[in-house]
Amino acid sequence: VMRLTKPTLFTNIPVTCEERDLPGNLFNQLMKDDPSTVKGAETLMLGEMLTLPQNFGNIFLGETFSSYISVHNDSNQVVKDILVKADLQTSSQRLNLSASSAAVAELKPDCCIDDVIHHEVKEIGTHILVCAVSYTTQTGEKMYFRKFFKFQVLKPLDVKTKFYNAETDEVFLEAQIQNITTSPMFMEKVSLEPSMMYNVAELNTVDTAGESESTFGARTYLQPMDTRQYLYCLKPKQEFAEKAGVIKGVTVIGKLDIVWKTNLGERGRLQTSQLQRMAPGYGDVRLSLETIPDTVNLEEPFDITCKITNCSERTMDLVLEMCNTNSIHWCGVSGRQLGKLHPSSSLHLALTLLSSVQGLQSVSGLRLTDTFLKRTYEYDDIAQVCVVSSEIKQS
């Protein structure tokens, strides 16, 4: 059994010395005459020649394990009914990798039966390739033997994820991918496959002169132990965005699909399990801001738009109260009826307020009371606005 891998570039160790040393120019001349060195750059360790693998090498999760199996008849007799079977034993299952399950009628002396097997590695840990051969001798005796080849499957990448729940039901996913192998990787694709309730937008490119360019540059190589951060924005689909009670409880976001290449184009692929976030707790009533200005003038009214959503499973009869603070003053009638709000339904409110203090001020003082249960919901520090003097012209 021999593992089939791509060849590698030949490397040598350059040996040089100064001209006034005893060897003189001997070492430099030997490197120039060496066919494995690069002409004009003999001191580089990496040459232009390819070399066949000298050992089993490393096999990483997500790569394709390929092996060449050869059964050779070393005797001087013809054997019959040869059956070669190759199984791969992992910690959880046993897989049959044989290309054909049919027996070969006969095998003459000094002849062989060849087979090439392929398997995409999907588990880490110890793997055992079990090669079993059964045959019948000329005397009719049935013979059987097995050979075992053990190898380890290593983890190529370390993936960490962070979730950020926005007030607008958007979810931001930050994925940190680290190359924990000993060789560089070419990151061919890193994408997020969202769950059925979300649409995804990748935030890993920038527009330059009308063209989309990767934030990581033209060459997306990931050196050993280097980490790269990918950012995605998930927005609820329209049919689910209107159902506040449904979307707030969604924990399954999607899964990452990562494709890379190593060495001379060897391809690997990993797909994470379903990523899950902690569902945000909105309580019975959720209040969010739809529109609010960034900068306002001192002692001049400005408008904001609020969205009130019933996240409970019962109908509410809401009353809106507005309480002034030291810096923020509400304009309008407090204690007005908003009417009945059914489960998972929303309503929009246009409110007016002004600030009597300059600087960054917090919008606070909204109170919602459910007259059915006599329960009051308080909303403070909803957002911040920058209050400037009216004499300062806003750009």
UniProtKB/TrEMBL annotation:
Domain Trafficking protein particle complex subunit 13 C-terminal: 293-387
Domain of life from the UniProt record: Eukaryota
InterPro entries reported for this sequence: TRAPPC13, TRAPPC13_C, TRAPPC13_M, TRAPPC13_N
Signal peptide interval: none
Span of domain Trafficking protein particle complex subunit 13 N-terminal: 1-153
Trafficking protein particle complex subunit 13 middle domain boundaries: 157-280
Any one annotated GO CC term: TRAPPIII protein complex
Family stated for the protein in its record: Belongs to the TRAPPC13 family.
PANTHER family hit by this protein: TRAFFICKING PROTEIN PARTICLE COMPLEX SUBUNIT 13
Subunit structure, as described in the record: Part of the multisubunit TRAPP (transport protein particle) complex.
Protein name: Trafficking protein particle complex subunit 13
Species of provenance: Erithacus rubecula
Gene: Trappc13
